[in-house]
Amino acid sequence: MSTYAIETCALHKRYGHRQAVAGLDLRVPTGCIYGFLGPNGAGKSTTIRMLLGLIKPTSGSCALLGRAVRWDDTRSRREVGALVEGPAFVDYLSARQNLLMLGRLSGLPHDQPLEEALQLVGLAE
């Protein structure tokens, strides 16, 4: 198993002619606290989205918790807690509907206890 929680090698992401991430080589050892700082547009959110498998890199590779990240595999998202930018909820859906939708997108079983969570935070109604 890798000693790195996060590892990227020549990671690139392009959106048309715009280069969002250019050849990022990064190694964050397991157990370390790492600050990902930079100006707007530096590629921080794009890199995190690639690490979580939410978007595909244009080229290069990345690994999270010792496993290569695949954009179509939800395992990484289940094993880490991440908010990329601000949490977004669909404003025309109820709290229950939003949680059901987010659960489906995360690959959670449909019988996951939802009512208890809604009661706990006062959103059951």
Structure classification: alpha+beta
Radius of gyration: 17 Å
Strand order of the largest sheet: 2-1-3-4
Number of continuous helical runs: 4
Q: Work out the strand percent.
A: 25-35%
* Residue share in helix: 10-25%
Unreliable spans are none
Strand runs, count: 4
Mean pLDDT across all residues, rounded?
83
Largest sheet entry: 4 strands, antiparallel
Ends distance: 46 Å
* Secondary-structure element series: EEHEEHHH
Describe the structure.
This protein is of the alpha+beta class. The protein is built from 4 helices and 4 strands, in the order E-E-H-E-E-H-H-H. The chain has a 4-stranded antiparallel β-sheet, covered by helices on one side. A hairpin with a 2-residue loop joins strand 1 and strand 2. The longest helix is centred in the C-terminal third of the chain and has 11 residues. The radius of gyration is 17 Å and the shape is globular. It starts with a strand and ends in a 5-residue tail after the last helix. The relative contact order is 0.15. The mean pLDDT is 83.
Features:
four-stranded antiparallel sheet, alpha+beta, 4 strands, 125 residues, single chain, 24% helix
Q: How would you concisely characterize the structure shown here?
A:
With 125 residues, the protein is α+β, with helices and mostly antiparallel strands. Helices cover 24% and strands 26% of the residues. The chain has helices at 44-51, 75-79, 95-105, 115-120; strands spanning 4-15, 18-29, 59-64, 67-68.
